[in-house]
Task: structure prediction
Amino acid sequence: MDQKAGETAMGQAPSISIIMPIYNAQDTVDAAVAAICEQSISDFELLLIDDGSTDASAAHCASLVQQDSRLRLICQENAGICAARNRGIQEARGEYLTFCDDDDTLLPDALRIMLVAARRERVDLVRTGYRILRQRQDGSYQELPHPEGKRCTLSAARKGYARFLRQSGPQFVWNALYRREAVSQVRFDPRCRYGLEDFLYNAEVYKVIRSAVYLPEVTYLHYEHDDSTSLQLEQAAVEGRVEALTLWVQAEWEALFRWEKGSSAAWAERQTQFVTFLMHQLRDSKAPASLRSSAWEALRRAMAEHPAGRLDFLRLARQNKKEMIALLLYQMHWQGLYRFLPDKEGK
Result:
């Protein structure tokens, strides 16, 4: 099923295609869509990809499509967020792509900020600042603090890939704008069933783009609810993320090699991300010993294919002491002690 909106003025394709996967979001999708429809620019299309919802989400979206010609509703059998986003990429007509979750908020000037930067800087990718709000047990939300980063660029002439990743932070897709032609062959990996799909997708993006800019201006509010995929801590979910982690390692190495020719210092920084991620997963899920053992074995095997050489722990400590400690514990095979470090994020 595909309910299409009308063409933009003069039959031209829109500047931006926004892809929103939807699954059982009848209580949140109206607000998420409203935030997009109220953007400070109007030259966009919003693709609502209903991924086999079992509630009234599709009906909500069908009603919204009738009210705004910039919206399109595409319904498919349940296949997961990666398949839904890939369907959106396939259907998109815009010069640029971006993504929005069905329970998040795109701030009012977000599209204008990213589009102006993309055209002014003539880049394939624009990344921006964001806020993450995690739901407490009482239903209220707590902001998870993270370093803001400084404005920076990435280009074939100037390089700076490691610095760009460091400044722009975790590589999510909902705070970014992609030039569609530049990433036309990149897709989300359906093997990422329990998270990490954003990180893997962006690693593949960095293997093909030629330029990028990071702006610290906040454009997006991301909400983590109790039932968020990224917060699922069942054993099957953790095992699924371990599988995706090994895919992420390989994709990151290939991207890094393209930009930094396999720099040991830059690769050591990426390794801290893998190690810290897995330590968090195993600590928060209270994984049994057998799962902890197999998970660390899988990560060691993946990283052994691309050794980093001698690590500069003092350099890492200046950037992020907690990540430096995590990597040191990992190197000494004492990673189980990570669970005793204070968790500043809280739950």
